[in-house]
Automatic annotation (TrEMBL):
Catalyzes the adenylation of molybdopterin as part of the biosynthesis of the molybdenum-cofactor. This is Molybdopterin adenylyltransferase. The gene is mog. It comes from the Bacteria. Coiled coil: none annotated. The keyword Nucleotidyltransferase applies.
Amino acid sequence: METQQTTKIAIVTVSDRASRGEYPDLGGPEIEAWLRAVITTPFETALRLIPDGRDSVSATLAALCDEDGVDLILTTGGTGPSPRDETPEGTIAILHKELPGFGEQLRRASLQQTPTAILSRQTAGIRGKTLIVNLPGNPASIRLSLNTVFAAVPYCLDLIGAGRIETDPTRIASFRPAR
Ligand SMILES: Nc1ncnc2c1ncn2[C@@H]1O[C@H](COP(=O)(O)OP(=O)(O)OP(=O)(O)O)[C@@H](O)[C@H]1O
Ligand SMILES: Nc1nc2c(c(=O)[nH]1)N[C@H]1C(S)=C(S)[C@@H](COP(=O)(O)O)O[C@H]1N2
């Protein structure tokens, strides 16, 4: 019988103020709680809290992919138009392939929550065997964001040779087309 591998998921909060301790990071724990409620296969998480900026994001993401071999990275924060918001630039800089559909769908769904959803430049993509997805910084956006794109994540991980994820179908019906 095949043994189920433990999937590695990194959660990266990108926030100047939270990383300086000016407020507690609520976004990272919110993502972790959502994952624990939805994923039914074994996985481990690594949480990072880093300052805004292209180099800060690029270095963190590249190390998680290349040194730690994580299967999935979810970032939160730094996707807006403010001068220090450079999470998409830092992400794109280290991607091998961009997956623009994630950002498109996240903005479309978030418009139901707030008209300022169009200010988020969030994107996603692949580096090696890692899928990286940007989410907005507002912790209140996390549940809606993950609910709207996560059905496509397990199949994407299959396609890039990353770890296998199963989800609770009453929460998220993962979609795997017949191949
Ligand atoms: N990780 C977080 N934990 C708790 N609240 C957050 C976090 N990130 C953002 N927020 C809150 O969400 C709202 C919108 O986020 P904003 O775009 O100002 O944050 P940011 O640019 O990620 O934060 P920062 O200014 O620290 O870099 C703000 O009210 C902020 O207080
Ligand atoms: N679902 C959802 N999406 C959202 C928001 C939100 O509150 N909920 N905030 C918007 C706002 S106000 C901004 S400026 C951008 C970027 O936020 P960030 O820089 O914290 O990533 O995300 C947008 N997307």
